[in-house]
Amino acid sequence: MGPETEVVESVSDIPVQDPPGEEFSAADLVWAKYASSEHQRDDVALIPYERMEAFIAGECNNPECPTRFHIERGRKRERGTLREVRSDDYLLYRMYWCSFGPENYGEGGTILPSRKYRLNTRNRAARPQSMRGCTCHFAIKRLYARPSLVLIIYHERRHVNKSGFICHGPLDRDAIGPGARRVPYVGSEIQQQTMSLIYLGVPEENILQTHMEGIHRYCSSDAKVDSLASQYVQKLGMIIKRSTHELDLDDQASIRMWVDRNKKSVFFYQDSTDTDAFVIGIQTEWQLQQMIRFGHQSLLASHCSFGVSKLKYPLHTLLVFDSRQQALPVAWIITRSVTKQDTLRWMKALTERIYSVDSTWRIGGFVIDDPASELDPIREMFSCPILFSLWHIRRTWLKNVIKKCSNREVQQEIFMQLGKLVYSVWSEKNPMAGLEKMFQDFIDQTTFIQYFKSFWVPKLEMWIDTIRSLPLSSQELSGAIEGYHLKLKAKAYDESQLDALQRVDWLVHKLTTELHSSYWLNLYADESGSFPEVKAEYIASTSWQRALQIPDNAVIFDDKEPFSAKVTSQKDTSQMWTVWNPGSEFSLCHCSWSMQGNLCKHIIKVNMMCGPRKDFQPLLSFQSFQRVLLDLWQKPMDDSFSLDLSVAWVMQMQERIQKVTELATSEGIAQVSGRLPIQWSNKKGRRVAAKRTSPLRVLPHSNGTVQKDFTPKKNRKRKRLSSLSG
Question: Does 302 have pLDDT greater than 50?
Answer without folding.
Answer: yes
